[in-house]
Amino acid sequence: xxxxxxxxxxxxxxxxxxxxxxxxxxxxxxxxxxxxxxxxxxxxxxxxxxxxxxxxxxxxxxxx
Length: 64
Ligand SMILES: [Zn+2]
Fold this sequence. Notes:
Number of strands: 2
Bound molecules: zinc ion
Strand order of the largest sheet: 1-2
Shape: rod-shaped
CATH class: Mainly Beta
CATH topology: SH3 type barrels
Radius of gyration: 19 Å
Order of helices and strands: EEH
Oligomer: single chain
Number of helices: 1
């Protein structure tokens, strides 16, 4: 897997995800950045689970 890059929240320069501090301004990098793919995938997975539960509930609840 290629190293993921994220933008610094303070100066918006690109940094390696593994870096703890920004190369440009030295501020601490966030662990879970909204721009990171991992965060988006996690959100997407939970949205799918919520929709699936909702569909099953409606199938059982609504009269046919
Ligand atoms: Zn920075």
